[in-house]
Amino acid sequence: MIEMKDVYKSYPNGVKALNGINIKIRKGEFVYVVGPSGAGKTTFIKLIYREEKPTKGAVYVDGVNLAQLKERHIPQIRRKIGVVFQDFKLLPKLTVYENVAFALEVIEESNSKIRRRVMDVLDLVQLKNKARFLPDELSGGEQQRISIARAIVNNPAVLIADEPTGNLDPDTSWGIMEVLEQVSNRGTTVLMATHSKEIVNTIKKRVIAVDDGKIVRDEYRGEYGYES
């Protein structure tokens, strides 16, 4: 589902964020991406949804080389990729239902399909009863659940979660992990960048450790391996 071949990334200011990355991630895998701040995790993640392009090398998602993708084709590939951010990024003036439906409206799905899909994912994240609420009427954990619902409403092949529990208390974080595991069990490939040692060491998954722009560890059912 995801493959990087000899990927390098340097920024105009001279920072070398990634230095020779080679990795394969299969369909349906749940993978943690860990490492210290400034190690290259964010760049690694951004390459997968084409927020950044590699300086050198190839990045494949579902068989498409994002490094060679023309700008006009980026929206099409992003329909296959859902992204969940630490700070939710919900539209404050839209209801929960409208926030989730927005992703389907922009690709002009029928109203009946939009309603069916939105209510299905709201049921998955256990917030069907709050469809008419505004984001500021929800707790932080509920807002993150809505963020996940919005990211998966298109049935993406890949879900990227960038520090999804970073702003949440421990109890709420475990609830978010349950949702992400359910998404993975439905066949979606999940990549989660995290600094949570407790989550990684408790819910055992594949761990890719990035440090100084390189993959220094790749373990199935691995551990966090850093002080958090």
Automatic annotation (TrEMBL):
One Gene Ontology MF term: ATP hydrolysis activity
Domain of life: Bacteria
Database matches in Pfam families: ABC_tran
InterPro entries: AAA+_ATPase, ABC_transporter-like_ATP-bd, ABC_transporter-like_CS, ABC_transpr_LolD-like, Cell_div_FtsE, P-loop_NTPase
Subcellular location: Cell membrane
GO CC, one annotated term: plasma membrane
SUPFAM superfamilies noted in UniProt: P-loop containing nucleoside triphosphate hydrolases
Gene: ftsE
Full protein name: Cell division ATP-binding protein FtsE
Subunit annotation: Homodimer. Forms a membrane-associated complex with FtsX.
Residues covered by the ABC transporter domain: 2-228
Principal location listed in the UniProt entry: membrane
Its job: Part of the ABC transporter FtsEX involved in cellular division.
Lipid bilayer topology: Peripheral membrane protein
Keywords: ATP-binding, Cell cycle, Cell division, Cell membrane, Membrane, Nucleotide-binding, Transport
Annotated organism of origin: Bacillus taeanensis
GO biological process, one term: cell division
Record-stated family: Belongs to the ABC transporter superfamily.
